């Protein structure tokens, strides 16, 4: 791995590790045995939602992406830029109890 940047665990106790500089998310069982990977993204942050979807903030494409647990991209949104609504390096995100989304936009220096 190169620049581990986040860890998430699903209900089946599979461990998802954002391997940022190798442009992938690696998936392991609870004993650390390699299972699979989600390639071709630069995962700055990963999050396992309660409904068992893997969310990734992608640094190469400045998008937030939703995956099923088989690694299939379900949808993504976002645009590169510094204007309101765009992102340049969505580094981390969170959702509050009222479903408001907060994204730290590292290269622009804003939330």
Describe the structure.
The protein has 111 residues and is mostly beta strands. The chain has no helices and 10 strands. It has strands at residues 4-9, 15-19, 24-28, 34-39, 43-48, 54-58, 63-67, 73-77, 90-95, 101-105. The strands form 3 sheets. A 4-stranded antiparallel beta sheet has the order 1-2-3-4, with no helix packed on it. The chain has a 4-stranded antiparallel beta sheet with strand order 5-6-7-8, with no helix packed on it. Strands 9-10 form a two-stranded antiparallel sheet. A hairpin with a 4-residue loop joins strand 2 (15-19) and strand 3.
Gist of the model:
By secondary structure, the chain is mostly beta strands. The chain contains no helices and ten strands.
Q: How is this fold's topology laid out?
A:
Blueprint: E1 4-9, E2 15-19, E3 24-28, E4 34-39, E5 43-48, E6 54-58, E7 63-67, E8 73-77, E9 90-95, E10 101-105
């Amino acid at each position: 791995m190169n620049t581990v940047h986040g860890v998430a665990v699903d209900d089946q106790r599979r461990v998802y590790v954002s391997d940022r500089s190798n442009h992938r998310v690696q998936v392991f069982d609870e004993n650390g045995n390699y299972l699979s990977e989600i390639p071709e993204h630069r995962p700055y942050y990963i999050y396992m939602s309660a409904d068992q979807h893997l969310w990734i903030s992608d640094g190469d494409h400045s998008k937030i992406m939703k995956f099923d647990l088989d690694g299939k991209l379900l949808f993504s949104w976002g645009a590169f830029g510094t204007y309101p609504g765009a992102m340049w390096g969505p580094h981390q995100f969170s959702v509050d109890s009222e479903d408001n989304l907060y994204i730290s936009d590292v290269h622009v220096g804003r939330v």
